[in-house]
Amino acid sequence: MSQENPSAAEVLSVAQAREPEAIGRTACVRGWVRTRRDSKAGFSFVEINDGSCLANLQVIAPAELENYQSEVRRLGPGCSVAVWGQIQASQGREQATELVAQRVHVYGWADPQHYPLQKKRHSFEKLRQWAHLRPRTNTLGAVARVRNTLCWAIHRFFQQRGFYYIHTPIITASDCEGAGQLFRVTTLDLARVPLKDGQVDFSQDFFHRATYLTVSGQLEAEAYACALGKVYTFGPTFRAENSNTSRHLAEFWMVEPEMAFYELADNMQLAEEFLKELFRTVLEEAAEDMAFFARWIDKQVIDTLQGIIDSEFVRLPYTEAIDILQRSGRQFEFSVEWGCDLQSEHERYLTEEHFRRPVILYDYPRQIKPFYMRVNDDGRTVRAMDVLVPRVGEIIGGSQREERQEVLLERMKEQGLDPEHYWWYVDLRRFGTVPHSGFGLGLERTVQFVTGMANIRDVIPFPRTPGNAEF
Ligand code: 4AD
Ligand code: MG
Q1: Which one of 53, 297, 306, 351 is most buried, by most CB atoms within 10 A?
Q2: Helix (H, G, I), strand (E, B), or coil: what is residue 323?
């Protein structure tokens, strides 16, 4: 066995070393110490974690180790180690196996005076100050693994159904949602901005025009759906909305499928199957982490997901929702009347109390929804759909798209948008237009929903919110 090079021994992850099949094997396991306990019988227990699973590996470190007094007895939370030894059946009830060390190498120390993740448990708010270290905690580690499982499930879902994964640009010249919540992208010298007729002269900027970080890849995805049929884009999106809530980020990930020949009902059907498949996957493929969330974060979380998998989503026209809310006898902070945008208190009432399952709200008033949504025959509403789930509220927003050129142009004017600026988008209606639909699922809201985590800032590694971009 090599003393310096761990790869000369059989390297196992903690997850592998914890499997009963590993018993009897000689192995090297590497990771970070969570705790050390010294027994009176003259040896130490060292728990190590390497992120391969939630649980730790118990290492038995005997006093005979060459560096037992000088190093092993000084190990504490955060130290990084490699341990060579034999995996044996454990007497303890917590684990099937343990590693009996023949050699321990310390890669790096973590001064207990300064390393913040000691035994004491910190609030999630506090942990945000150590965004670079918090993935070493049980909760943030579990969140990262569940997030990974979800991303994998997202790709698998679409790939199995003949969708193409496309990449839409991050830098864009158009405001997809028309809400004006854009971050500007520029190389102009902000101290000496070039002016022309009293306005910033963006023709001197890098792209010779004003550009922004995208709020959604939808418009570009539509171009590809109207050629390849079924596509999805999945990437970061940016919104400069000054929302300091537990459900808003300035940078978040969105998956956006877009399908030619789909009408609104097909879009709803896909969204429902999609969410159920994602929930099923985390229950099956991230079971250990999900049990952790059910124990420590939200007791109901597994039952809620299972209940949704077995239920049928409600499909409810906006107009009926207004009716239900008005008759609820509830005193909402924001009053409800036809034409208003629903607040999260209204959404939550519908999904958490009135129906107690996910609700797909559709056919919203045209004046509160973006220009690209298809106008219904009533002229007052558009084929929008929002999927609402308990606790999180809106998790998906989507629509059938306006495929009629004249109506689209009228809608742009109505919303004060310059059709010239969106000429290529209008072109898709000039040349071989087809009915088509799509939606956007917020990845972080999905992670939040499946884990039960209260704040969206704790389900993305390095959250960006107003005033926060340190890491
Ligand atoms: O409803 P939204 O704004 O829809 C769109 O952007 C469409 N262009 C999507 C499409 O049809 N292709 O956003 C979609 C979803 C929301 O339902 C929500 O889950 C999430 O994105 N989302 C946010 N998540 C975190 N922080 C924010 N600030 C978010 N804004 C939207
Ligand atoms: Mg929305």
Answers
A1: 351
A2: helix
